[in-house]
Design goal:
It is a single chain. By secondary structure, the protein is of the alpha+beta class. It folds into 3 domains: about 90 residues, GHMP Kinase, N-terminal domain (Ribosomal Protein S5, domain 2, 2-Layer Sandwich); about 45 residues, no CATH class; about 140 residues, no CATH class. It is built from 8 helices and 6 strands, in the order βββαββααβααααα. The strands form 2 sheets. The protein has a 4-stranded mixed beta sheet, covered by helices on one side. A two-stranded antiparallel ribbon has the order 5-6. β1 and β2 form a beta hairpin. α4 packs antiparallel against α5 and α4 packs antiparallel against α6. It is rod-shaped.
Amino acid sequence: MPKSMTGYGKAEADCGIHKIQVEVKSQNHRFKDIILRLPKGLQNLEHEVKQAVSQAIQRGRVELTIFLNKWQNENTVKLEPNKIFITDYLKLAQEIKEEFLVEGEITLEQILREPEAIHRSPEMLNLEEIRPVLIDCVLESLRHADVMRLKEGEFIVNDLKERLEVINQRLEDIRERAKILPIEQKRKLQERLKILLDDIPLDENRVALEIAIYADRCDITEEIIRAMSHISQFRELLALDEAVGRKLDFLIQEIHREITTLANKAQDVYISQKSVEIKAELEKLREQVQNLE
């Protein structure tokens, strides 16, 4: 069953000291439009994230935002010895001892008291470690959004099927009406001729010829058949588990074209009325189809 383009999903996961949250929102759009918002430092993973989204979404505007608790955790600090400072410090102490004949030893405690002896840097996120966790989180958020899209898609499809039944019934009404149009036209033509010619006998052959010309000019059988064929194709597409929104929109245009043509050819009040009713339903179909992927 086709999916709606509207959905929302959220997922989160832990990766070491970091908490990842992914939020995805999708809405109607003629094409595929993916907008990613990644925190500073995760831009190198943007291509992989976009690829995952692109495989899950066929059409629509998708906004995916990734949240990270902290890129640099102030409470987690990486400590490293400042080897250059310590080497110079010990070398200087030895030179002082030798030059000034000073006794004493430099202890570890004394070295650690020096602020410059230890490098303190925030613990940075390991991209290789976070990559699989992040992608899994993205896919999970997309699955959650998919549940909503499928559910709304089901409601839309059911509504479309009901409207197709209405349109199909109106076409059947038009087809039945089209069968008797030549008969009515013959009767009306005979009545008008009697009034115009008064007591002059009618040429039945001439009347029959005029009726035949009218019937040929106003025959709407082909338009009805094509419109019903489009409706049949429409139903078949609604049964597919794939993106069919654009195809459905095209079929609506084709049905509308056939209805306009048959109404113009028939020149009949009843058929015109039914055509207007069909076009009203087609407009509602079009509005709903805009929501399908």
